[in-house]
Amino acid sequence: MPDETTDHAVVHRTITVGGVEVFYREAGPPDAPVLLLPHGYPCSSFQYRRLMPALADRWRTLAPDFPGFGYSGTPDPQNFAYDFDAYAEFLDTFASTLGLARYALWLHDYGSQIGLRHAIARRERIAALIIQNGDIYADVLGPKYATIRAYWDAPSPATRRPLEEAVSEDGFRHEFVGEVDDAVAARVPPDLWTLHWPLMDTPVRRALSVGLMEKLEANLAWFPRYQDYLRTRRPPALIVWGPEDGYMPEPAARAYLRDLPDAELHLIPGAGHWLLETHFDAALPLVRDFLARTLG
């Protein structure tokens, strides 16, 4: 009889991708259908540490740390652009290096931008999408974009300063607990910022974090392309969403139905941007049911 603990365990590996040493987490049988898990900001593959073993009985899950995040290497900015194009190319190379031919793709936060660029480039690989608080509709962006928009509208040291201040341990803490009520916030482990911030507190990593916020403006030009991909390709999609999200409130979730009218939409009451931390037990059955029907 197989060892259930071993079968369901998350293993931690490194691989060289484009000359960068990349850390990634893996769980599940090597021959099982694959779910690829690019992470969001300001986190790393750590955000999937509970999800991966909970799916490992039937699916192979893979979650890399992007270059400049988590335990992956931090290439010289002259060699790696630290923009959404560079990260999409990285994700493509990571999947190719591991020989992944077809897989479902999780889209969350910055990972939604990166993942959809990858999906557009590799349409034949994408079997399904799971969309969790990832924004691609400019008309429904939430109030927390106000600070970033102020910089976009009038770039200056004064408008850039709040972006720099957000790249801090306290700024990271606010990203994780700043929108949900106190009872929900109490479910979020402080490890998310106290352990991740020391990994990010280097000159290059602080600069790339601010730079990604700056580059979100140029990324808006990609939103119609993401929408066209969804509208024309119509991949099977599960939308599992925390509506208490200052960047991506409930209308940002419903907007996906414009281009994916057959998508399954689940708004989890009380949950915010990090619902896998606070409402995991509500989300997991939805994910398992969707994967069983669409991925095998």
TrEMBL record:
InterPro entries: AB_hydrolase_1, AB_hydrolase_fold, Haloalkane_dehalogenase. Residues 33-279 form the AB hydrolase-1 domain. Keywords: Hydrolase. Signal peptide: none annotated. GO terms for molecular function: epoxide hydrolase activity. Pfam families: Abhydrolase_1 (PF00561). This is Alpha/beta fold hydrolase. It comes from Rhodoplanes serenus. The lineage of its organism: Bacteria, Pseudomonadati, Pseudomonadota, Alphaproteobacteria, Hyphomicrobiales.
